[in-house]
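Support case: user asked for a sample of complex input and structure output to validate their parser. Sending the pair below.
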Amino acid sequence: MTLLLKQIFALLKLINSETETDQIAWGLTLGLVLGMSPFLSLQTFLVLLCIFIFRVQMGAATLSGFFFAFVAYIFDPVFHIIGLWILRLPALQGLWTDLYNIPLVPLTKFNNTVVMGAGVVTIIVCVPGFFLFRKLLTKYRQTVVARFKQTKIWKAVEATSLYKWYYTYEQYN
Amino acid sequence: MNSTTDKNQTPPPIPTNAKKKKSGGIFRTKLILITLTFLVLNFIYFHFFFEGHLRRLMEWGLTKSTYAEVNVGAVKFNLFKLEFGIYDFQMTNYEVPQNNLVAFSSVIMNVEMRALLMGKFVVEEASLLNLSFQQPRKRVGKIYPELKRKAEEEARANEGKESALSKTINQEKKKLIDEKINSNVLGDAMTFLAADNWKEGLSNVSDDLKTTQQIKRAEDFISSKKEDWKKSIAEIKQSEKLKSILEKMKGTKLSKDPKEALSQLKDLKKTYEEGKSELEGAKNKISSIQKDSEVLQKMVKDIDSFIKEDLESAKGKMKIPSLNIASVGKDLFARYISNQLAPYQGIIAKIQKYAPKKSKEEEIKPPPRGQGLNIHFPKEGGYPAFWIKKVGLSTNIQSDRASGEIKDISTQPAQVGRPISWNFQGELPSQKLSDVQFNGALDFRKSPTNLKFLMMVGRYPIEKMQLTESSKLSLGMEKLSARTKINGEFDGPVMDVILDSKFSDYEWKVSSEKQALQSILSSILGGIKTVDVNAHLQGPIFNPDISLTTGLADDLTNGIKNEFDKRLKEAEAQIKQLIENKIGEQKKKLLASLGENEKQIFGPLLSSNKSITDMSSSFDQVMKDLQDQKKNEGKEKAGKALQKGLDKLKNKLPFKF
């Protein structure tokens, strides 16, 4: 929990800094995949492994995961319809049968209509999603953060000795 | 100004001696190291401690739930081979801590790695070796009565929360026992024999006997008709007018003058018709009396059949129990059969509740939100989600020699293509069971679920078997040696089971308040050395039609019937006598009245009838004679005239004859 909170505070700090845009965008994208996947499945395990091994922003992944899990719940009936249609496509029956009967693949639970529907949507949106997140972050920093830094309140805060002390402390750490 | 400059001032520059933050690279090296350390520690734990901890956990959990000491010799778990084994398992019998309730030397199972990687749990082969029950322990096992007491208190608190399924099963069983077992035909019959109940029936012969009523009806009939009959007879007897008419007709001589004769005949015809009309009237009266006589005779004749009816009615009031072999057989053995079948009935009821649902049924229901619908893509040789291919069972302790196997326990039997099947056979002298055989198949592929089984035990002891138990009679057998074979099929909620049992080497236990009953039964049962029971149960599982035959029922029924017949004959004779006594006086009176009427009415009626009939024929004869006379005179006259004419004709002819 401490690790998670630390990561979320780091995320807030990173969003408002001018660095690590890709890490945050990757975190958000992997969180999207996490949120759209069933909790006990092979793909969830693989995404978690990626988050642990690679230096992506964990807080971003966690928040994004929760957010997209909620989105997935809302769109669940749509995913069911899409998944049912795909799983019943006559042309793909052979493929599904083979995948269903080879090791590891069934652990993805692809034969579930909601998992299949959500999975297909995730595959389609995750790559454009990464670029979109990156662009949105840059835009956010350019507009919201820059404008906020120009406000009198922020300047007042910046002028305090406490802030200066914290800023120096952060630089050293 | 200064203040403005201060406000726009950027944060202070970083001191030169401050370290520049490292980028750290693409991998989280620290986290990977921590994870690897965690995995290594886990490996060490599982390699050195897990099996011991699991063994103790099993012992603790099972001891808590059985309130008696449970020992597990060893637990082996091999992650790479996916092999799991429990060795030297002993569960103490709470009631007899010197014995084990159940024990086995090993349970080993191998899980298939390939299937596990597909998210399926498939056990290639499991084995349960040297399974034994009630065998003595090396040392006395510990028991925990306080745990049991606590659990029982909790159970009592939850008593009202009986599951709906258990409730249904118990209700149906109670219904079966109430309807088909608690009939107690034998008890009633025996009690009837031993008691003086039948004598009580005699006092119930009431005054409103049907025979009495019939006699009264006959008497009323006679008294209502008697006057009419007498009047009619008197009228018939007073037939002076008829006689004078007849005399007049007899005395008539026809004139030679045809004209006068014709007039005479006309008068006679009138007189004849008048006479005839009188005769018809008399005949009608006679016929009416004769009809009444017939009705009366029938009434008298019916008295005998009414006596029979009254006899049956009196017997009915005595509540004589009906006794047939089939009902006696059911009375004796329905409880035994019910107990034999109860486990199967419970299993079937539970199977029906928990049987795997058909995929079509799943699709009809919309999937719960967030769960979706699982579509399976099975192929030949593929794995179902759960499958234990084979469980080998064997026991080889002391003189016990038995083995068997259970095959294809699976959540998707259609994919396996075979039903769950089992077979077990051998000798278990330690359990006093010999020639044990248990085969069967449970097929979830069929709808409804089908269970076929054969269970046979060549010889086993039964301490006590209660055949009938009531306030009137208790009949049972003790220290029996039994042989049972149950061969059956449960097709969903419908059963078809044949049960054959044979009991021998037993002691009869008869008890009754009445000494007479005990002596009757003992004399009947004394010669019965073996008892066989053949039952065929068909129909709904909780309410089957039971067709049961047993030699004991034959022997008992015949013995009881003989006793019964004796008592019945005595009772019948007494009832008959009682009825005769009650109706005797009335019957005598009626017959006397009939005799009197016979003398006064029906006797004279016969002679009147004869004279009327004679008179009627006399009338006809006289009329016929007169008509003949008239005809003959006419013919004679015509003949003479014809002769005269012929003579004249002859004389006129030129030749002579």
